[in-house]
UniProtKB/TrEMBL annotation:
<keyword id="KW-0004">4Fe-4S</keyword>
<dbReference type="InterPro" id="IPR023404">
    <property type="entry name" value="rSAM_horseshoe"/>
</dbReference>
<dbReference type="Pfam" id="PF00919">
    <property type="entry name" value="UPF0004"/>
</dbReference>
<keyword id="KW-0411">Iron-sulfur</keyword>
<keyword id="KW-0479">Metal-binding</keyword>
<protein>
    <submittedName>
        <fullName>tRNA (N(6)-L-threonylcarbamoyladenosine(37)-C(2))-methylthiotransferase MtaB</fullName>
    </submittedName>
</protein>
<feature type="domain" description="Radical SAM core">
    <location>
        <begin position="141"/>
        <end position="375"/>
    </location>
</feature>
<keyword id="KW-0808">Transferase</keyword>
<dbReference type="Pfam" id="PF04055">
    <property type="entry name" value="Radical_SAM"/>
</dbReference>
<keyword id="KW-0949">S-adenosyl-L-methionine</keyword>
<dbReference type="InterPro" id="IPR005839">
    <property type="entry name" value="Methylthiotransferase"/>
</dbReference>
<dbReference type="InterPro" id="IPR013848">
    <property type="entry name" value="Methylthiotransferase_N"/>
</dbReference>
<dbReference type="InterPro" id="IPR007197">
    <property type="entry name" value="rSAM"/>
</dbReference>
<dbReference type="InterPro" id="IPR006638">
    <property type="entry name" value="Elp3/MiaA/NifB-like_rSAM"/>
</dbReference>
<keyword id="KW-0408">Iron</keyword>
<dbReference type="InterPro" id="IPR058240">
    <property type="entry name" value="rSAM_sf"/>
</dbReference>
<dbReference type="InterPro" id="IPR006467">
    <property type="entry name" value="MiaB-like_bact"/>
</dbReference>
Amino acid sequence: MRSMKKKVAFYTLGCKLNFSETSTIARSFTGLGYEQVDFEQKADIYVINTCSVTENADKRFKTIVRKAQKQNPDAFLIAVGCYAQLKPEELAAVDGVDLVLGATEKFKITDYLSDLSKNDMGVVHSCEIQEADFYVGSYSLGDRTRAFLKVQDGCDYKCTYCTIPLARGISRSDTLDNVLKNAAEIAGQGIREIVLTGVNIGDYGKGEFGNKKHEHTFFELVQALDRVEGVERLRISSIEPNLLRDETIAFVARSRTFVPHFHIPLQSGSNAVLKRMKRRYLRELYEERVAHVKRTMPHACIGVDVIVGFPGETEEEFLETYHFLNELDISYLHVFTYSERANTEAERMPNPVPMKIRNKRSKMLRGLSVKKRRAFYESQLGTYRTVLFEGENKGGYIHGFTENYVKVKAPWDPALVNTLHRIELTRIDEDGLVRFDFIPESITA
Ligand code: SF4
């Protein structure tokens, strides 16, 4: 007998924070008796959680809308997320969109479901971003192996290329008690790894009780999370170099749960470019942070965000970045090609770099990232690590990540899904992934 439950499907663009929020929004639907289905399936309601950083965000959005319309032309289509906050009218004008909710409304989405009849033009419920000064907690549950736990939102920095403060508002944090409660809830679901996420999580504690003060620090958050019963592995998603303190590094090195993996945005290796970006450090601080991490944990994995083609970036400044990264003891790069964003300071800066040159520079840094990752993996061969196996059978293989973010692979075995095992890293295979031998006294089956 066909279930009379209304079906809802979600599509998320962008960062871990967006995935944690989609998952929480989805639970508010299922809590009201909706049935959640995959986006590829026919649904009565489609929700798209948008991103303002994704390149061609507008094209991507339209493609996803068309996909939903093909599944069910009568479905009610809702857009939420950063792009919806920044350009609500633009999204509302896209054929098929019925409702656009801004940053203050996205978590109240189930209040807008009384009338699901299609609208000729999307209805916008948005706000001035200043009104988004309250905090809503969230965490993802979609993946059996790891969960993204939101601990902080918004940002008070003024990086000249960035729209996130315009899309997500001021820096504010969850209460420490609520973060610990969420972490325990996640662990209670049998999920073995929690990834702390936010916009500027090193700024954790700011606005915890709706004011500008820091009630707690990121270091206190890390210490408290390390004591939560049942939590096995904690990973810091990304942290600003100027907010990565010695005590946090030292604590991670001896902690029961935090893994030796730091993703630290650099953006440029040229101090002149860093100043034009209004980043809050110069390359010397970054270099010193990397050295401090590697001194404390030589096997730590360090990932780096870097932007190429920032306005005015000369060939010399780009080569400064290239050589700086080439010298640095880091493990991989996330390379972003600069693209103009409306209402940012950088958008009005002179001497835009031709796209052809931006792409050439991006290609060079992606090549460097492959070299760095290989060198890091080679440095780990012969060492003993703990892998957390994921849940997907990819071409007859199961994959997993060690605590220091080495990606390993083994023949598919369903019994390994979502288990932690002690292994010895032995060789790098033709796909650049690491093979290993199990160590008999595996930790937990
Ligand atoms: S720190 Fe800078 S780049 Fe990061 S979210 Fe804040 S303003 Fe954007």
